[in-house]
Amino acid sequence: VRVVVSGGGSVQAGESLKLSCAYSGDIVSIDAMGWYRQYPGKEREGVAAMISRDDRTYYGDAVKGRFTMSRDNAKNTVYLQMNDLKPEDTAVYYCAAATTYGGGLSPRFYNYWGQGTQVTVSS
Question: Contact 32/69 with Cβ under 8 angstroms?
Fold first, then answer.
């Protein structure tokens, strides 16, 4: 499975950004797709996850109500719509695919990771 992230950039607080994550390869094996972010010197933090079989979605507490994860099956792409961005959302964002998903937002289930993309939110 290959995962490629696009989007990201610099915005002002309160603005929006949309990240895209295209996946390819053995997509039938994908149990879930997830979005993560990482602050310098910190562990990766779960942002959102979507289960492949039913599109059930989980969100991290810090982004609930502001971020929305969606999927376009025709394009084999998941998205992360980020609204009302805050300076504390500034991080490197990653997309990942899990072939054996165990629930929640733990990164340990994800075995295919895309490259990170920087999101910077200025106050």
Answer: no
